[in-house]
């Protein structure tokens, strides 16, 4: 009798899971992993035949020991112990340090997670420059009119960029019925977006959440009309920068899928570093202005005049006094830029391991 009950319960659970692809994905894969690029459908972003390669520094600085947690240990050992899979330091366009751990190598693909928010911001800046989007002051309902009944006429593109939209969004990835899990594991982002509501008056306070970045993704898709977000990234950034490898952008579904612009651009450490180099040079790549300089400046300056946070602008994070800026992902993915030192640091990891990586990376930058 007990076995019969167990079998019935198992069958009921199986039916429930298969009725909901989102719930099935959540139960099977929970929690987010840097290998998640393998479980979602995607679009490929191809590189060009002309590849840019960072040269090795002739006399690289040796990073030998690190003092942390009251323990002095070799730098490489510390990175490996804290579940880092790639750590890359580039100064004056030369590789000062590059190491990979846990069977990862320079050709290994790693999911960006929320670093994709910063990349989405790049594309928004280009789209505005090209007139595909009029300005940051446009209401999002110009592109997503189905949100008008939900009060989104008062939400501008700038509110989304600054995370001041007032969006009601549960950022927890551990709640299978929350917004973040729905956006990450779900198979219909457009439908999920249509259900979004506002919790606060737009433009009054900062509230970091992934929903705003995904709204930017849908705005961008609608503005591009016949072009996908992935193909736009390929045309405007990936090929012009001479990335070493193709990348992929995870989608919610195979057919007519929408890029998960709040996360999930899948690439290699050196190519992530080139995105940092692009912003290090104010949107210019060698002799070509890829992203408007004024967009890069607006994304990386301290400005709280419209209730934005002093540490966040246009989907980029800022250190104190905006001396450095960085893109950040949930498991400790970082593209860190220090303009004064002409330096870029990329850290990719399987976990944060409870390390304050911003402070750690800033300390590494200070040593140069």
UniProtKB/TrEMBL annotation:
It comes from Sphingobacterium haloxyli. Pfam families: Beta-lactamase. Gene3D superfamilies: DD-peptidase/beta-lactamase superfamily (3.40.710.10). This is Serine hydrolase. It comes from the Bacteria. Residues 76-348 form the Beta-lactamase-related domain. Keywords: Hydrolase. Signal peptide: none annotated. One of its GO terms (molecular function) is hydrolase activity.
């Amino acid at each position: 009798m007990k076995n019969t009950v167990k079998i019935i319960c198992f069958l009921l659970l199986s039916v429930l899971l298969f009725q909901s692809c989102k719930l099935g994905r959540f139960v099977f894969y929970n929690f987010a992993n840097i290998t998640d690029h393998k479980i979602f459908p995607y679009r490929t972003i191809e590189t060009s035949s002309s590849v840019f390669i960072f040269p090795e520094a002739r006399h690289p600085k040796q990073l030998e020991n690190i003092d942390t947690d009251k323990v002095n240990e070799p730098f490489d050992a510390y990175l490996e112990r804290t579940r880092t899979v790639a750590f890359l330091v580039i100064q004056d366009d030369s590789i000062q340090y590059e190491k990979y751990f846990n069977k990862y190598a320079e050709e290994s693909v790693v999911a960006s997670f929320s670093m994709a928010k910063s990349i989405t911001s790049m594309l928004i800046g280009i789209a505005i420059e090209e007139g595909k989007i009029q300005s940051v002051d446009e209401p999002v309902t110009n592109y997503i009119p189905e949100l008008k009944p939900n009060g989104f006429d008062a939400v501008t593109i700038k509110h989304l960029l600054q995370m001041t939209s007032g969006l009601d969004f549960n950022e927890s990835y551990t709640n299978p019925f929350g917004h973040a899990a729905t956006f990450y594991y779900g198979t219909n982002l457009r439908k999920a977006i249509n259900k979004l509501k506002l919790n606060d008056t737009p433009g009054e306070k900062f509230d970091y959440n992934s929903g705003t970045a995904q709204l930017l993704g849908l705005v961008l898709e609608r503005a591009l009309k016949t072009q996908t977000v992935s193909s736009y990234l390929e045309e405007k950034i990936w090929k012009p920068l001479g990335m070493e490898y193709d990348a992929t952008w995870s989608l919610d579904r195979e057919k007519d899928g929408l890029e998960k612009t709040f996360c999930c651009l899948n690439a290699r450490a050196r190519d992530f570093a080139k995105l940092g180099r692009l912003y290090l040079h104010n949107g210019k790549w060698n002799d070509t202005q890829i992203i408007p300089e004024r967009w890069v400046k607006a994304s990386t300056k301290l400005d709280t005049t419209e209730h934005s946070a002093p540490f966040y602008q246009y989907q980029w994070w800022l250190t104190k006094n905006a001396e450095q800026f960085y893109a950040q992902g949930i498991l400790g993915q970082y593209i860190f830029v220090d303009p004064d030192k002409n330096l870029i640091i990329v850290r990719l990891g399987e976990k944060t391991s409870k390390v304050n990586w911003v402070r750690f990376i800033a300390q590494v930058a200070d040593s140069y």
